[in-house]
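Hey team,

Filing this mostly as a record. A colleague (T.K.) asked me to run one chain through the structure pipeline before their review meeting, and I want the input and output archived in the tracker in case anyone asks later how it was produced. No errors, nothing strange. Just documentation.

Input sequence:
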Amino acid sequence: MRICIDIAMFPILLTALAFRITGGLTHEWTGIFAAILFLIHNILNLRWHKGVLKGRFNFKRLLNTAVNFSLVILAATILSTGILASAHIFGFGNYFNGMELRQIHSVSAYWFLIGVSAHIGLHWDMILARMPRCAFLSEKIARIALLLILPFGIWAWIERNMTGKLFLGYSFDFHEGCATLFFFENLVIAALVALLTRLVSKIPDIIFSKTKKQKEKK
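Output structure:
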């Protein structure tokens, strides 16, 4: 059940980002489903929350904790601003639908995509361990696939102006192209972030391994 919920969350998140493609009503319902799945995901991982301050913290655990708490804050921001800006389901949009509110909602949503992607990168080994050991899901092929996606991810990041969306306040999406291209671009951006996060999380292990080998040679 847990892996099914985790897998379902990501395409729902990508669909929620496609406001200009799906329309307002679908966007709001998708956001509600995403919020429910996010809540269930955290309930199923309640043991992690209870033990978050216990034990020793290495670099990967610090990074993982920072990402997880950032996701909780972003999810709360997206949900609250989404409810206030809702024009269909909750009907508050006529009262609170200011540009600043929509801007906060949009920026938070794109940061949430980055956070979820980083979360996937930090748990990539765990995700593969839960899946059937089919040939196309093997760890080596998954790593090769991510490396092949790397140039597409960089291209999509530039094409979608992600730096502007995250840092410069240009978060509104006016996508007018092919819907398939929209989802593909966001997918490879997520893969790029997941890959880079996974690599960054392993830097201390690589440094420690090299240092250990050098000491052994001496």
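Quick notes for T.K.: The mean pLDDT is 83. The first helix runs from residue 2 to 17.
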